[in-house]
Structure formats: C-alpha cells, structure tokens
Amino acid sequence: MSDQSCPCGLAQYSECCQPLHLGAIKAQTAEQLMRSRYSAFAKHEIDYIIQTTAIGQQKALDQTAIADWSKANEWLKLNVVQAKEKLDKNHAQVEFKAHYHHKKVHKADHRKNDQKNDEMLVQIHHEVSHFVKYDGAWYFLDPTTEMQITMKQPCICGSGKKFKQCCAEYV
Asked: What is the pLDDT of residues 159-168, one digit of tens each?
C-alpha cells in the first residue's frame, strides 16, 4: 500500500498523508491538514477526521454518518483552488473541489453507454473551509456541527478566548 499515490494528489501516500493519519507528524499548514482530511475520507480514516476537527466540536460529530459518507463515495481527485494561510494569527482558509462518484448510483447504473453515465455521475464538492491553529496543531472548523454556541462561552478551538473573539466569524 505504501507505493500508492496519495489521494490528495501530491506524492506517494507513505510520504504524504499517511504519516499524518498515523499521528507521526502534525500538519504544518491548513492546506496540508485539508489535504490529509480529504485523503482520510478516501482511506476511511474516520478517527483522523474526528481528531482534526476543532476540539470543542468533536463530541458533536456523527461518527457513523462520517464513515457512511466516506465509504459511499469513490474519491477521484482533489483540486485546491486557493489557500489563505494567514487570515489572522491563528486562522486560515482553504478553498477546494473534491471530485467523487457516489458508489451506490455508480454500481446500480449498468447501461450500454457506461462512459457517458460515469461522466454524469461525477460529483464535485466545492467548499471554502476554515481552520484554526491551537497549541501547535491545525484543526478544521466544522460549520455543519449541531451545537448550541453562545458568543460569550469559551471558544470551540480550546484557546480559552471567548467564542466571539476567536472562531465565531469562521463558523
């Protein structure tokens, strides 16, 4: 498996995202974290997806739904549109497009013109994601997490600042 290309498209998996998935190293940039999270979806590394989401959001994540989404898709390629590594001292933004096939539709569609059907089934998830660096590690700020967050509570990233003074504008 170590001689395979990394799903993120940069290098061999063993030299690219695998060390991050194994916890041997931490992402040095928000873009590197985002790429490793894409690869984690492709490789079904659900624990990594959870662990790299903002600390205060981790308990609210639906691990089963994340695993189902990961396994229901064939992850084709990743395009990073742009990375803004310094929105402020601790926040970054990465815009990307994740290309994938939904496996259930793909397997169920066995018509004569499979190539044309495959092209129609390619999905593109286009997202602008925000990240926060806390205690030397980058974390994804998940805007879809169902949580009751007030502006005066401690921030979800663990910084100790009030939410409104830290990550509120990015979630």
From this structure: 999 999 999 9
